[in-house]
Protein backbone atom coordinates (compact mmCIF):
# COMPACT_ATOMS: atom_id res chain seq x y z
CA UNK A 1 0.00 0.00 0.00
CA UNK A 2 1.74 3.11 -1.25
CA UNK A 3 0.24 6.56 -0.74
CA UNK A 4 0.30 8.99 -3.63
CA UNK A 5 1.50 11.74 -1.36
CA UNK A 6 2.31 12.61 2.20
CA UNK A 7 1.58 16.19 3.24
CA UNK A 8 3.35 17.42 6.38
CA UNK A 9 1.88 20.52 8.02
CA UNK A 10 4.69 22.58 9.48
CA UNK A 11 3.83 26.24 8.96
CA UNK A 12 2.78 27.00 12.52
CA UNK A 13 4.50 29.58 14.71
CA UNK A 14 5.20 27.24 17.57
CA UNK A 15 4.59 30.21 19.87
CA UNK A 16 4.58 28.13 23.03
CA UNK A 17 8.15 26.99 22.40
CA UNK A 18 9.27 30.62 23.00
CA UNK A 19 12.17 30.07 20.65
CA UNK A 20 14.13 31.79 17.93
CA UNK A 21 14.23 28.42 16.18
CA UNK A 22 11.15 27.22 14.27
CA UNK A 23 9.40 24.52 16.33
CA UNK A 24 9.87 21.69 13.83
CA UNK A 25 13.64 22.33 13.79
CA UNK A 26 14.04 21.51 17.48
CA UNK A 27 15.79 18.16 17.91
CA UNK A 28 15.36 15.10 20.05
CA UNK A 29 17.55 12.00 19.81
CA UNK A 30 19.71 13.71 17.22
CA UNK A 31 17.00 14.43 14.70
CA UNK A 32 14.65 17.38 14.23
CA UNK A 33 10.94 16.99 14.90
CA UNK A 34 10.41 17.43 11.16
CA UNK A 35 13.11 14.85 10.49
CA UNK A 36 11.33 12.27 12.65
CA UNK A 37 7.99 12.84 10.89
CA UNK A 38 9.57 12.78 7.44
CA UNK A 39 11.41 9.60 8.39
CA UNK A 40 8.14 7.87 9.32
CA UNK A 41 6.53 9.17 6.09
CA UNK A 42 9.38 7.88 3.91
CA UNK A 43 8.83 4.43 5.38
CA UNK A 44 5.68 4.30 3.21
CA UNK A 45 7.63 5.22 0.07
CA UNK A 46 5.08 7.84 -1.06
CA UNK A 47 5.28 9.09 -4.64
CA UNK A 48 5.28 12.71 -3.46
CA UNK A 49 6.26 14.40 -0.23
CA UNK A 50 5.12 17.97 0.44
CA UNK A 51 5.86 20.05 3.53
CA UNK A 52 3.84 23.18 4.27
CA UNK A 53 6.15 25.90 5.57
CA UNK A 54 5.42 29.34 6.97
CA UNK A 55 7.06 30.49 10.20
CA UNK A 56 10.84 30.35 9.79
CA UNK A 57 10.31 29.44 6.16
CA UNK A 58 13.91 29.78 4.90
CA UNK A 59 15.39 27.72 7.72
CA UNK A 60 12.78 24.98 7.43
CA UNK A 61 13.13 24.83 3.64
CA UNK A 62 16.92 24.62 3.87
CA UNK A 63 16.65 21.83 6.43
CA UNK A 64 14.09 19.95 4.34
CA UNK A 65 16.43 20.12 1.36
CA UNK A 66 19.08 18.30 3.39
CA UNK A 67 16.56 15.72 4.63
CA UNK A 68 14.85 14.91 1.31
CA UNK A 69 16.13 16.90 -1.67
CA UNK A 70 13.14 15.80 -3.78
CA UNK A 71 10.54 17.02 -1.28
CA UNK A 72 8.30 19.94 -2.20
CA UNK A 73 8.23 22.86 0.22
CA UNK A 74 4.90 24.69 -0.07
CA UNK A 75 4.67 28.19 1.34
CA UNK A 76 1.54 29.07 3.30
CA UNK A 77 1.64 32.86 3.45
CA UNK A 78 -0.92 33.24 6.24
CA UNK A 79 -2.05 30.97 9.03
CA UNK A 80 -5.39 29.91 7.63
CA UNK A 81 -5.67 26.72 9.66
CA UNK A 82 -4.88 23.05 9.09
CA UNK A 83 -7.54 22.80 6.35
CA UNK A 84 -6.17 25.83 4.52
CA UNK A 85 -2.64 24.45 4.82
CA UNK A 86 -3.68 21.09 3.39
CA UNK A 87 -5.48 22.74 0.46
CA UNK A 88 -2.42 24.90 -0.26
CA UNK A 89 -0.24 21.78 -0.39
CA UNK A 90 -2.64 19.74 -2.51
CA UNK A 91 -3.01 22.60 -5.01
CA UNK A 92 0.77 22.96 -5.24
CA UNK A 93 1.25 19.22 -5.80
CA UNK A 94 -1.48 19.06 -8.47
CA UNK A 95 -0.11 22.14 -10.21
CA UNK A 96 3.20 20.32 -10.59
CA UNK A 97 2.04 16.76 -11.23
CA UNK A 98 -1.53 17.11 -12.54
CA UNK A 99 -4.59 15.77 -10.78
CA UNK A 100 -3.64 13.12 -8.22
CA UNK A 101 -5.53 9.97 -7.40
CA UNK A 102 -5.21 7.42 -4.62
CA UNK A 103 -4.45 8.08 -0.97
CA UNK A 104 -2.96 11.19 0.61
CA UNK A 105 -1.60 11.06 4.13
CA UNK A 106 -1.71 14.30 6.14
CA UNK A 107 0.38 14.63 9.28
CA UNK A 108 1.52 17.44 11.58
CA UNK A 109 5.22 18.25 11.64
CA UNK A 110 5.24 18.18 15.42
CA UNK A 111 4.50 14.50 16.17
CA UNK A 112 8.00 13.02 16.34
CA UNK A 113 7.04 9.69 17.91
CA UNK A 114 4.98 8.53 14.95
CA UNK A 115 6.31 5.40 13.24
CA UNK A 116 5.99 4.06 9.74
CA UNK A 117 4.27 0.94 11.05
CA UNK A 118 1.47 2.98 12.64
CA UNK A 119 1.01 4.90 9.40
CA UNK A 120 0.77 1.53 7.65
CA UNK A 121 -1.86 0.39 10.14
CA UNK A 122 -3.85 3.54 9.33
CA UNK A 123 -3.62 2.71 5.62
CA UNK A 124 -4.58 -0.93 6.07
CA UNK A 125 -7.44 -0.41 8.50
CA UNK A 126 -8.65 2.68 6.72
CA UNK A 127 -8.65 0.97 3.31
CA UNK A 128 -11.95 1.50 1.49
CA UNK A 129 -12.76 4.65 3.48
CA UNK A 130 -12.83 8.11 1.93
CA UNK A 131 -11.18 9.38 5.10
CA UNK A 132 -9.50 7.62 8.00
CA UNK A 133 -8.21 9.39 11.08
CA UNK A 134 -5.70 7.97 13.52
CA UNK A 135 -6.94 8.35 17.09
CA UNK A 136 -5.71 7.49 20.56
CA UNK A 137 -7.16 7.14 24.00
CA UNK A 138 -5.19 9.52 26.16
CA UNK A 139 -5.03 9.46 29.94
CA UNK A 140 -4.96 13.26 29.69
CA UNK A 141 -6.73 14.41 26.51
CA UNK A 142 -6.22 18.09 27.35
CA UNK A 143 -5.73 20.33 24.30
CA UNK A 144 -6.55 17.75 21.64
CA UNK A 145 -9.55 17.54 19.31
CA UNK A 146 -12.06 14.95 20.57
CA UNK A 147 -13.40 12.05 18.53
CA UNK A 148 -17.19 12.00 18.55
CA UNK A 149 -18.67 8.62 17.64
CA UNK A 150 -22.19 7.51 16.87
CA UNK A 151 -24.09 5.19 19.21
CA UNK A 152 -22.98 2.28 17.00
CA UNK A 153 -19.39 3.41 17.39
CA UNK A 154 -18.83 4.85 13.95
CA UNK A 155 -17.01 8.16 13.57
CA UNK A 156 -19.21 11.23 13.40
CA UNK A 157 -16.95 14.23 13.66
CA UNK A 158 -13.98 15.81 15.42
CA UNK A 159 -14.50 18.69 17.83
CA UNK A 160 -11.67 20.95 18.96
CA UNK A 161 -11.37 21.32 22.71
CA UNK A 162 -11.99 25.07 22.55
CA UNK A 163 -15.20 24.42 20.61
CA UNK A 164 -16.35 21.49 22.77
CA UNK A 165 -19.23 21.39 25.25
CA UNK A 166 -18.96 19.74 28.65
CA UNK A 167 -20.04 16.36 27.36
CA UNK A 168 -17.54 16.28 24.50
CA UNK A 169 -14.69 17.45 26.74
CA UNK A 170 -15.13 14.25 28.79
CA UNK A 171 -14.24 12.11 25.75
CA UNK A 172 -10.80 10.55 26.08
CA UNK A 173 -10.38 9.49 22.47
CA UNK A 174 -8.50 12.24 20.65
CA UNK A 175 -7.54 13.22 17.14
CA UNK A 176 -3.86 12.59 16.35
CA UNK A 177 -3.90 15.07 13.47
CA UNK A 178 -2.83 12.19 11.24
CA UNK A 179 -5.15 11.18 8.41
CA UNK A 180 -5.42 9.08 5.25
CA UNK A 181 -7.72 10.61 2.62
CA UNK A 182 -8.94 9.52 -0.74
CA UNK A 183 -7.62 12.44 -2.82
CA UNK A 184 -10.88 13.07 -4.64
CA UNK A 185 -12.95 13.19 -1.45
CA UNK A 186 -10.34 15.43 0.20
CA UNK A 187 -10.21 17.83 -2.76
CA UNK A 188 -14.01 18.22 -2.71
CA UNK A 189 -14.22 18.69 1.07
CA UNK A 190 -11.44 21.30 1.12
CA UNK A 191 -13.56 23.47 -1.18
CA UNK A 192 -16.29 23.99 1.40
CA UNK A 193 -14.51 24.31 4.75
CA UNK A 194 -15.98 27.01 6.97
CA UNK A 195 -14.20 29.30 9.38
CA UNK A 196 -17.07 29.01 11.79
CA UNK A 197 -15.08 28.17 14.94
CA UNK A 198 -13.40 29.84 17.90
CA UNK A 199 -10.17 30.45 15.96
CA UNK A 200 -11.76 31.60 12.72
CA UNK A 201 -9.55 29.13 10.83
CA UNK A 202 -10.29 26.46 8.26
CA UNK A 203 -10.02 23.22 10.21
CA UNK A 204 -8.96 20.08 8.42
CA UNK A 205 -11.02 18.21 10.99
CA UNK A 206 -14.16 19.63 9.39
CA UNK A 207 -13.32 17.70 6.21
CA UNK A 208 -14.18 14.47 8.04
CA UNK A 209 -17.68 15.74 8.81
CA UNK A 210 -18.15 17.04 5.25
CA UNK A 211 -17.00 13.78 3.64
CA UNK A 212 -19.39 11.79 5.83
CA UNK A 213 -22.31 14.12 4.99
CA UNK A 214 -21.47 13.74 1.29
CA UNK A 215 -21.96 10.00 1.71
CA UNK A 216 -18.30 9.01 2.01
CA UNK A 217 -17.18 6.37 4.47
CA UNK A 218 -15.07 7.70 7.34
CA UNK A 219 -13.11 5.62 9.80
CA UNK A 220 -11.32 6.18 13.08
CA UNK A 221 -8.34 3.89 13.63
CA UNK A 222 -7.16 3.64 17.22
CA UNK A 223 -3.38 3.68 17.65
CA UNK A 224 -1.94 0.70 19.58
CA UNK A 225 0.35 2.96 21.55
CA UNK A 226 -0.94 6.40 22.42
CA UNK A 227 2.54 7.91 22.77
CA UNK A 228 2.92 7.79 18.99
CA UNK A 229 0.52 10.65 18.54
CA UNK A 230 1.93 12.96 21.22
CA UNK A 231 2.55 16.39 19.77
CA UNK A 232 5.23 18.88 20.80
CA UNK A 233 3.86 22.33 21.57
CA UNK A 234 6.21 23.48 24.32
CA UNK A 235 9.58 22.61 25.87
CA UNK A 236 8.05 20.30 28.47
CA UNK A 237 6.48 18.19 25.73
CA UNK A 238 9.77 18.31 23.83
CA UNK A 239 11.48 16.77 26.87
CA UNK A 240 8.68 14.20 27.32
CA UNK A 241 8.96 13.07 23.71
CA UNK A 242 12.75 13.02 24.03
CA UNK A 243 12.45 10.67 27.00
CA UNK A 244 10.09 8.37 25.08
CA UNK A 245 12.56 8.19 22.20
CA UNK A 246 15.42 7.55 24.63
CA UNK A 247 13.53 4.59 26.08
CA UNK A 248 12.67 3.25 22.62
CA UNK A 249 16.28 3.45 21.46
CA UNK A 250 17.65 1.98 24.70
CA UNK A 251 15.11 -0.86 24.77
CA UNK A 252 16.00 -1.79 21.20
CA UNK A 253 19.74 -1.71 21.99
CA UNK A 254 19.33 -3.82 25.12
CA UNK A 255 17.35 -6.38 23.10
CA UNK A 256 20.28 -6.33 20.69
CA UNK A 257 22.76 -7.18 23.44
CA UNK A 258 23.98 -3.87 24.83
CA UNK A 259 24.34 -3.62 28.62
CA UNK A 260 23.11 -0.40 30.24
CA UNK A 261 23.47 0.04 33.96
CA UNK A 262 21.03 2.94 34.00
CA UNK A 263 18.97 3.36 30.83
CA UNK A 264 17.26 6.46 32.20
CA UNK A 265 20.53 8.42 32.19
CA UNK A 266 21.87 6.96 28.95
CA UNK A 267 21.12 9.12 25.90
CA UNK A 268 21.73 7.81 22.41
CA UNK A 269 20.91 9.49 19.11
CA UNK A 270 19.04 7.58 16.43
CA UNK A 271 22.13 7.97 14.23
CA UNK A 272 24.46 6.05 16.59
CA UNK A 273 25.57 2.41 16.16
CA UNK A 274 26.33 0.30 19.21
CA UNK A 275 27.48 -3.34 18.92
CA UNK A 276 26.42 -6.20 21.17
CA UNK A 277 28.34 -6.68 24.41
CA UNK A 278 29.10 -3.01 24.73
CA UNK A 279 28.61 -1.75 28.30
CA UNK A 280 27.24 1.75 28.82
CA UNK A 281 27.64 3.11 32.34
CA UNK A 282 25.36 5.77 33.90
CA UNK A 283 25.27 9.32 32.64
CA UNK A 284 26.69 8.61 29.22
CA UNK A 285 25.57 10.14 25.93
CA UNK A 286 26.37 8.96 22.42
CA UNK A 287 25.58 11.55 19.77
CA UNK A 288 25.78 12.05 16.02
CA UNK A 289 27.72 9.62 13.87
CA UNK A 290 29.17 7.68 16.74
CA UNK A 291 29.94 3.97 16.47
CA UNK A 292 30.98 1.73 19.35
CA UNK A 293 32.33 -1.75 18.59
CA UNK A 294 31.73 -4.84 20.67
CA UNK A 295 33.04 -5.26 24.16
CA UNK A 296 33.82 -1.57 24.62
CA UNK A 297 32.99 0.02 27.97
CA UNK A 298 31.76 3.62 27.93
CA UNK A 299 31.23 5.78 30.99
CA UNK A 300 30.24 6.65 33.54
CA UNK A 301 29.44 10.23 32.55
CA UNK A 302 31.02 10.12 29.12
CA UNK A 303 29.91 12.08 26.06
CA UNK A 304 30.89 10.89 22.60
CA UNK A 305 30.01 13.05 19.60
CA UNK A 306 30.84 11.74 16.11
CA UNK A 307 33.38 9.25 17.51
CA UNK A 308 34.35 5.69 16.67
CA UNK A 309 35.38 3.38 19.48
CA UNK A 310 37.07 0.06 18.67
CA UNK A 311 36.52 -3.35 20.18
CA UNK A 312 37.30 -3.70 23.85
CA UNK A 313 38.25 -0.05 24.32
CA UNK A 314 37.38 1.78 27.54
CA UNK A 315 36.37 5.44 27.82
CA UNK A 316 35.85 6.69 31.37
CA UNK A 317 34.39 10.08 32.45
CA UNK A 318 35.45 11.81 29.26
CA UNK A 319 34.21 14.13 26.53
CA UNK A 320 35.20 13.28 22.97
CA UNK A 321 34.24 14.82 19.67
CA UNK A 322 35.36 13.68 16.24
CA UNK A 323 37.84 11.23 17.75
CA UNK A 324 38.78 7.71 16.73
CA UNK A 325 39.59 5.47 19.69
CA UNK A 326 41.24 2.22 18.62
CA UNK A 327 40.56 -1.30 19.82
CA UNK A 328 41.62 -2.01 23.43
CA UNK A 329 42.61 1.64 23.95
CA UNK A 330 42.10 3.37 27.31
CA UNK A 331 40.77 6.91 27.64
CA UNK A 332 40.17 8.91 30.80
CA UNK A 333 39.14 9.56 33.41
CA UNK A 334 38.64 13.22 32.51
CA UNK A 335 40.09 13.22 29.03
CA UNK A 336 39.00 15.77 26.43
CA UNK A 337 39.52 14.43 22.92
CA UNK A 338 38.81 16.91 20.14
CA UNK A 339 38.41 16.49 16.39
CA UNK A 340 41.19 14.67 14.60
CA UNK A 341 42.31 12.67 17.60
CA UNK A 342 43.29 9.14 16.63
CA UNK A 343 44.14 6.83 19.52
CA UNK A 344 45.90 3.69 18.26
CA UNK A 345 45.19 0.11 19.23
CA UNK A 346 45.96 -0.50 22.90
CA UNK A 347 47.12 3.11 23.36
CA UNK A 348 46.22 5.31 26.31
CA UNK A 349 45.12 8.91 26.89
CA UNK A 350 44.88 9.15 30.66
CA UNK A 351 43.63 11.52 33.34
CA UNK A 352 43.30 15.19 32.44
CA UNK A 353 44.66 14.80 28.94
CA UNK A 354 43.48 17.05 26.12
CA UNK A 355 44.19 16.07 22.53
CA UNK A 356 43.27 17.48 19.13
CA UNK A 357 44.41 16.65 15.61
CA UNK A 358 46.84 14.17 17.08
CA UNK A 359 47.67 10.58 16.26
CA UNK A 360 48.81 8.31 19.04
CA UNK A 361 50.50 5.15 17.74
CA UNK A 362 49.72 1.60 18.77
CA UNK A 363 50.47 1.00 22.44
CA UNK A 364 51.68 4.58 22.99
CA UNK A 365 50.72 6.38 26.19
CA UNK A 366 49.92 9.88 27.37
CA UNK A 367 49.03 8.90 30.89
CA UNK A 368 48.65 12.16 32.84
CA UNK A 369 47.88 15.88 32.64
CA UNK A 370 49.02 16.70 29.13
CA UNK A 371 48.04 18.75 26.10
CA UNK A 372 48.72 17.08 22.76
CA UNK A 373 47.82 19.21 19.75
CA UNK A 374 48.84 18.80 16.09
CA UNK A 375 51.05 15.81 16.73
CA UNK A 376 52.02 12.42 15.41
CA UNK A 377 53.31 10.03 18.03
CA UNK A 378 54.78 6.66 16.99
CA UNK A 379 54.16 3.20 18.39
CA UNK A 380 55.07 2.36 21.98
CA UNK A 381 56.13 5.87 22.93
CA UNK A 382 55.49 7.28 26.40
CA UNK A 383 54.72 10.94 27.00
CA UNK A 384 55.62 11.88 30.57
CA UNK A 385 53.17 13.56 32.93
CA UNK A 386 52.35 17.22 32.27
CA UNK A 387 53.96 17.33 28.85
CA UNK A 388 52.72 20.13 26.61
CA UNK A 389 52.84 20.06 22.85
CA UNK A 390 53.37 23.78 22.24
CA UNK A 391 51.64 23.95 18.89
CA UNK A 392 50.68 27.61 18.69
CA UNK A 393 53.12 30.49 18.31
CA UNK A 394 50.38 33.05 18.66
CA UNK A 395 49.82 33.22 14.92
CA UNK A 396 49.94 29.76 13.38
CA UNK A 397 49.71 26.14 14.46
CA UNK A 398 52.71 23.83 13.99
CA UNK A 399 53.20 20.09 14.07
CA UNK A 400 55.25 17.92 16.39
CA UNK A 401 56.47 14.50 15.33
CA UNK A 402 57.47 11.95 17.94
CA UNK A 403 58.95 8.68 16.64
CA UNK A 404 58.52 5.10 17.84
CA UNK A 405 59.41 4.01 21.39
CA UNK A 406 60.31 7.53 22.48
CA UNK A 407 60.42 8.49 26.16
CA UNK A 408 59.39 12.10 26.74
CA UNK A 409 60.31 13.12 30.30
CA UNK A 410 57.69 14.63 32.59
CA UNK A 411 56.89 18.30 32.15
CA UNK A 412 58.52 18.59 28.75
CA UNK A 413 57.55 21.47 26.46
CA UNK A 414 57.76 20.31 22.85
CA UNK A 415 57.86 23.60 20.95
CA UNK A 416 56.55 22.93 17.44
CA UNK A 417 57.61 22.48 14.76
CA UNK A 418 59.93 19.90 16.23
CA UNK A 419 60.77 16.24 15.63
CA UNK A 420 61.86 13.67 18.19
CA UNK A 421 63.58 10.71 16.51
CA UNK A 422 62.83 7.03 17.13
CA UNK A 423 63.93 5.73 20.50
CA UNK A 424 65.01 9.22 21.71
CA UNK A 425 64.54 10.53 25.26
CA UNK A 426 63.96 14.01 26.63
CA UNK A 427 64.96 15.04 30.12
CA UNK A 428 62.14 15.94 32.51
CA UNK A 429 61.38 19.64 32.58
CA UNK A 430 62.99 20.32 29.21
CA UNK A 431 61.88 22.98 26.78
CA UNK A 432 62.62 21.26 23.48
CA UNK A 433 62.96 23.76 20.65
CA UNK A 434 65.28 21.79 18.41
CA UNK A 435 64.93 18.35 16.85
CA UNK A 436 66.22 15.44 18.92
CA UNK A 437 67.89 12.78 16.73
CA UNK A 438 67.00 9.10 17.05
CA UNK A 439 68.46 7.55 20.16
CA UNK A 440 69.61 10.89 21.66
CA UNK A 441 68.74 12.38 25.04
CA UNK A 442 67.40 15.90 24.57
CA UNK A 443 68.09 18.19 27.52
CA UNK A 444 66.80 21.72 27.47
CA UNK A 445 66.87 23.19 30.94
CA UNK A 446 69.14 25.03 33.39
CA UNK A 447 71.46 22.88 35.51
CA UNK A 448 70.46 22.82 39.18
CA UNK A 449 72.69 24.24 41.91
CA UNK A 450 72.14 24.06 45.69
CA UNK A 451 72.98 27.02 47.92
CA UNK A 452 73.83 25.26 51.14
CA UNK A 453 72.78 26.76 54.47
CA UNK A 454 70.62 29.42 52.84
CA UNK A 455 67.52 28.78 54.99
CA UNK A 456 69.37 28.90 58.29
CA UNK A 457 70.94 32.22 57.30
CA UNK A 458 68.07 33.91 55.50
CA UNK A 459 65.10 32.49 57.39
CA UNK A 460 66.59 32.25 60.85
CA UNK A 461 64.09 31.29 63.52
CA UNK A 462 61.56 29.85 61.08
CA UNK A 463 60.17 26.37 61.38
CA UNK A 464 62.04 25.53 58.21
CA UNK A 465 65.30 26.72 59.75
CA UNK A 466 64.71 24.71 62.94
CA UNK A 467 63.91 21.61 60.90
CA UNK A 468 67.04 22.18 58.83
CA UNK A 469 69.16 22.59 61.95
CA UNK A 470 67.80 19.43 63.52
CA UNK A 471 68.49 17.51 60.33
CA UNK A 472 71.84 16.04 59.21
CA UNK A 473 73.76 18.73 61.15
CA UNK A 474 76.99 19.98 59.53
CA UNK A 475 76.58 21.82 56.32
CA UNK A 476 79.56 22.67 54.16
CA UNK A 477 79.29 26.00 52.49
CA UNK A 478 81.75 26.79 49.75
CA UNK A 479 82.95 30.35 49.31
CA UNK A 480 81.47 30.36 45.83
CA UNK A 481 78.03 29.53 47.20
CA UNK A 482 78.32 32.15 49.93
CA UNK A 483 79.31 34.73 47.39
CA UNK A 484 75.88 35.51 45.95
CA UNK A 485 73.62 34.05 48.62
C1 LIG B 1 -4.65 19.83 15.64
C2 LIG B 1 -6.05 19.31 15.39
C3 LIG B 1 -6.55 18.59 16.63
C4 LIG B 1 -5.58 17.48 16.99
C5 LIG B 1 -4.15 18.01 17.12
C6 LIG B 1 -3.19 16.84 17.24
C7 LIG B 1 -7.14 20.88 13.85
C8 LIG B 1 -8.11 21.99 13.72
N1 LIG B 1 -6.92 20.42 15.08
O1 LIG B 1 -4.74 20.76 16.73
O2 LIG B 1 -7.84 18.06 16.41
O3 LIG B 1 -5.99 16.85 18.19
O4 LIG B 1 -3.77 18.75 15.96
O5 LIG B 1 -1.90 17.27 17.50
O6 LIG B 1 -6.61 20.42 12.86
N2 LIG B 1 -0.38 24.23 10.68
C9 LIG B 1 -0.06 24.80 9.47
N3 LIG B 1 -0.77 25.86 9.01
C10 LIG B 1 -1.81 26.39 9.70
C11 LIG B 1 -2.14 25.81 10.94
C12 LIG B 1 -1.41 24.74 11.40
O7 LIG B 1 0.86 24.34 8.78
O8 LIG B 1 -2.40 27.36 9.21
C13 LIG B 1 0.39 23.09 11.15
C14 LIG B 1 1.13 23.37 12.44
O9 LIG B 1 2.43 23.85 12.17
C15 LIG B 1 1.16 22.00 13.10
C16 LIG B 1 -0.08 21.30 12.57
O10 LIG B 1 -0.49 22.04 11.44
O11 LIG B 1 2.31 21.24 12.70
C17 LIG B 1 -1.19 21.28 13.61
O12 LIG B 1 -1.47 22.63 13.98
P1 LIG B 1 -1.65 23.03 15.49
O13 LIG B 1 -1.91 24.48 15.58
O14 LIG B 1 -0.54 22.49 16.31
O15 LIG B 1 -3.02 22.25 15.80
P2 LIG B 1 -3.54 21.78 17.19
O16 LIG B 1 -4.19 22.89 17.89
O17 LIG B 1 -2.48 21.01 17.87
CA1 LIG C 1 -0.15 20.66 17.70
What is this structure's SSE topology?
Layout lengths: L4 E6 L16 E2 L2 E2 H10 L5 E6 L3 H11 L4 E4 L6 H16 L5 E6 L7 H10 L5 E7 L8 E4 L5 E5 L6 H4 L3 E10 H8 L14 H9 L4 E5 L12 H22 L2 E2 L6 E2 L4 E2 L4 E2 L4 E3 L3 E2 L4 E2 L4 E3 L2 E2 L4 E2 L3 E3 L2 E2 L4 E2 L4 E2 L4 E2 L4 E4 L2 E7 L4 E4 L2 E7 L4 E2 L4 E3 L9 E3 L4 E2 L4 E3 L2 E3 L4 E2 L4 E2 L8 E2 L11 H5 L4 H8 L8 H6 L1
Parallel strand pairs: 1-4, 1-6, 4-5, 7-11, 12-15, 13-16, 14-17, 15-18, 16-19, 17-20, 18-21, 19-22, 20-23, 21-24, 22-25, 23-26, 24-27, 25-28, 26-28, 27-29, 28-30, 30-33, 31-34, 32-35, 33-36, 34-37, 35-38, 37-39
Antiparallel strand pairs: 2-3, 6-10, 7-10, 8-9
Helix pairs in contact: 6-7
Bound molecules: uridine-diphosphate-N-acetylglucosamine (UD1) and calcium ion.
Calcium ion binds next to loops.
What does this structure look like?
Strands 13, 14, 16, 17, 19, 20, 22, 23, 25, 26, 28, 30, 33 and 36 form a 14-stranded parallel β-sheet that branches. A seven-stranded mixed β-sheet has the order 5-4-1-6-10-7-11, with helices on both faces. The protein has 485 residues and is an alpha/beta fold. It has three domains: 225 residues, Spore Coat Polysaccharide Biosynthesis Protein SpsA, Chain A; 186 residues, Hexapeptide repeat proteins (UDP N-Acetylglucosamine Acyltransferase, domain 1), CATH 2.160.10.10; 35 residues, no CATH class. The chain has eleven helices and 39 strands. The site of uridine-diphosphate-N-acetylglucosamine has 27 residues, from β1, α3 and β10.
Amino acid sequence: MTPTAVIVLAAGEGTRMRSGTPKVLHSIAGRTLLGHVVHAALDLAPTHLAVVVGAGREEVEAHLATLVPSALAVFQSRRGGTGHATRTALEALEKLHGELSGIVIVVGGDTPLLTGSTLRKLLVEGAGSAAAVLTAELPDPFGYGRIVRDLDGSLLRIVEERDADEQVIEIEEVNSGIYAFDVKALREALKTLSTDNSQGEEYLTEAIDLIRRNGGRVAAVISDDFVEILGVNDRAQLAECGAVLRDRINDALMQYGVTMMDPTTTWIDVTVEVAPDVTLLPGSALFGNTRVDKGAIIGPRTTLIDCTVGEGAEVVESTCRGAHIGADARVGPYSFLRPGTDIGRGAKAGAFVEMKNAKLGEGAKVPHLSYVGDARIGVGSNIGAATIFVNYDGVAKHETIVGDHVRIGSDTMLVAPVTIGDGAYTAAGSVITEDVPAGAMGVGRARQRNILGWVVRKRAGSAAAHAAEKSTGTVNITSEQLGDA
